[in-house]
Design brief:
The chain has helices at 24-28, 113-122, 124-150, 153-169, 182-189, 193-205, 221-227, and strands at residues 37-41, 46-48, 56-62, 65-70, 76-82, 87-88, 99-102, 106-112, 175-177, 209-212, 215-218. It is α+β, with helices and mostly antiparallel strands. It folds into two domains: 24-148, Sandwich (Jelly Rolls), CATH 2.60.120; 152-227, Orthogonal Bundle (Arc Repressor Mutant, subunit A). It starts with 23 loop residues before the first helix and ends in a 6-residue tail after the last helix.
Length: 233
Amino acid sequence: MFATVAPIATWSSPVPPRPIAGPAQANVLEPLKAVAVTVRTDRDEEIVAQGDPARHCYLLVSGCARTVKLMEDGRRQVGEFLLPGDLFGWEALDEHDFGVEAVTPVTLLRFPRSALETLVDRDRHFARQLRALSAGQIRAGRERLVLLGRKTACERIASFLLEMAQRIRGEGGAMIGLPMSRADMADYLGLTIETVCRGLAQLRTAGVIAVERSKIVILDRRALGVAGCETVH
C-alpha cells in the first residue's frame, strides 16, 4: 500500500475520503510504488494541460480533481470528477486529450508511463488488471452517452447525485459533501448553472433531497432513482 503518503483534509464532508488502498484502481499500481513521486496542488491549479505529452500517469490520493476539455470558443466540458483512488493519464495516447485541474487541494502520486508500459509487457496479471480498468472506463463512457444524449435536465441531476452518493459515501450514505461547484456540475452535465440550481430546487421541493450549500442529504433514495431513471434497490 502507499502508506507513506498521508491523506489530507480536502472539503467539508461528514466522513473523510476513502482510503486509497480500498479502490481496485489504487491497488493496480502497487508494483510501481518505488518510482512514485508525491505531488501536491492547490485548488483550481492545473495538474495536466490539454495537449500535454502523455509522459506520466497519476493516482489521486486525496481531494477532488476534474478533467476538462476547452473548445475554441472558450466553452468548457467537464469530462469526469476524480476522487481518491482514481487513476488518470494511463489511458492517454501520445498526448492528453483532456486537461486535469484540482477542484480542491489535492495530493497525487505520479508515475512514469514508461515504467507502466514496461510492467505491462512483462507481467500478464498486471496487464489483465489494466484491461479490466479499460473495460470499466468504456462502460462508464457508454452510461455517460445515455446521460447526456437521452436524459432530461432533472434526470441528469438526479443521476449525478446518485453517482456522487455512491462514490463519496458508498451505497448507504445519505449525506454527501459535494466538493465541486454548481458551475462544475453544469459543465459536467451539459447544462447551465441556472438549470442545475432549478433542478436541485425541484428535487428539494418534492422532498427528495435537502440542500445546505455544498451538502446534499438524500431523503428518498428510491424517488431520486425514479427521477434519474435509475434502478435503485
